[in-house]
Amino acid sequence: MATNLMLISLGFLGALLVSLLIMPYVWRHASRATARRLQFAAPDSVVEVQADRDQLRAEHALSSRKLELEIRELKEKLAADAVEFTRNDSNLEQINAALEQKNSTITARD
Predict the structure, then answer these.
(1) In the list 47, 48, 72, 101, which could disulfide-bond 43, CB 3.0-4.6 Å?
(2) CB 75 within 8 A of CB 66
(3) Residues 14, 20: contact at Cβ < 8 Å?
(4) Separation of first and last alpha carbons in the chain
(5) pLDDT digit string (tens) for 29-88?
(6) Phi, then psi, of 73 in degrees rounded to 5
(7) Is the dihedral of CA 39, 44, 50, 56 positive or negative?
């Protein structure tokens, strides 16, 4: 029983020693990978930051212009529909007046 316990503890200590020997290499590799990732994520210069900002402004201006054109088209369509509605309303009034006149003529003949 004591030998089994000693062998288990010896195996644990051996694994601990191996992990302590490997850990500096793993740490260096992780820090290099993180530094590389941060270097690629960060802009290189002020000019690049300004270029990115200008690109965002241009995209925003383009989308704003598209929306303005769409609003203008919708306003024009709304105005055309209003004219059509007024024309149809006028025609309906004329038809109703003609119908009234015909109804009164029919009533007078009866």
Answers:
(1) 48
(2) no
(3) no
(4) 127
(5) 999 999 999 888 777 788 888 988 999 999 999 999 999 999 999 999 999 999 999 999
(6) -60, -40
(7) negative
